Amino acid sequence: MWGPQYNSPPVRWRIELEIEFLTAWRIGSGQEGETTDMGILVDPDGTPILPGSSIKGVFRSCCERLAGALGVTACLLDRDLSGVDCWNGFDSASFRQEKKAISEGKPRAVELRRRMEEKTCHVCRLFGTTMMGGRLILSDGCLTKEGWPELVERRDGVVIDRDEGVARDGLKYDYDVAPAGMNFSSTLEWIDYPRALEKEERGQTLRERALVAAAIFQWSDGFSLGGFTSRGLGRARLVVLSVKSVDFGDPEQAGKFLVKREWNLVKDWENRWQGWIEEQLATAIPGARVTA
Ligand SMILES: [Zn+2]
């Protein structure tokens, strides 16, 4: 899935993590629940599930919020809103025009990739666009063995009249929530190119490392996931279980991984990540001075 990029050996990172729900939470199914108006996503046994795509969406939003502070561009998938040019936020007419200009020049694959990156904001380069695959994945949550109380809870809601600010008579609804205390394990993996020949591409590697590190640190303090978070649902905390990597520029590491799927355990990851963040700040923020 990673594909050849940048003509240089990549480094692959793997974070094994756990997400602990401190409150009840819900990821809506878009359908009625068994006994309520609004159901949640469950597996065939009725156990609430946590899709990797849901985690990734919220992780992306977290990275977008951190982008400014780290000197990283984020289009927010809306060029007008963010003021950042990005193919992912383009209107379709300008997008077609750009695509035509590129195809007429018949650039080689490497050149095409470079042109696409130039037109893509830093956050979209990591998470992917409709044109360009992302380089970060999050696996579906896997319920940890502590299990769950086998009970989907039911909550009531009322439709509030926006003008009057009061509940409208008779307009009540109910919805399912998954209980507090459910824990899921998941893995976050991404790939980068610290040995890329071009300075811009090495710069992108540092930006992404700083972004992922800052977002993981933030999630360790707590974050919200799923629907109705304004009603206090979906408060969660992330715990990093382990950080591993494979440097494909190191024949021994690459060999061990390719033959035995052996990862290299990164023991001092917190210090290294702090180093990434400080280096990115020193590089990207004018006037920033980081002292050791
Ligand atoms: Zn973008």
Attribute tags:
binds zinc ion; 7-stranded antiparallel beta sheet; 35% helix; 292 residues; alpha+beta
Instruction: Give the low-pLDDT segments.
Output: none
The biggest beta sheet is recorded as: 7 strands, antiparallel
> Which ligands, by name, code or SMILES, are bound?
zinc ion
**Cα-atom Rg, whole angstroms?**
22 Å
H/E series, N to C? Answer: EHHHHHEEEEEHEEHEH
- Indicate the percent of residues in helices: 25-40%
Count of DSSP H/I helices: 8
Quote the average pLDDT.
88
Derived from helix and strand composition plus strand pairing, the structural class reads alpha+beta
The oligomerization state is: single chain
Total count of strands: 9
Measured distance between first and last alpha carbons: 38 Å
Principal-axis shape: globular
Beta-strand content: 15-25%
Would you mind describing this structure in some detail?
The structure is a single chain. The longest helix has 22 residues, at 199-220. This protein has a domain at 11-24 and 44-74 and 121-146 and 186-284. It is globular and about 65 Å long. The chain is built from eight helices and nine strands. Strands 1, 2, 3, 6, 7, 8 and 9 form a seven-stranded antiparallel β-sheet that branches. Strand 4 (153-160) and strand 5 (167-177) form a beta hairpin. The mean pLDDT is 88. The protein has 292 residues and is α+β, with helices and mostly antiparallel strands. Bound molecules: zinc ion. Residues 75, 86, 88-89, 120-121, 123-124 line the site of zinc ion (ZN).
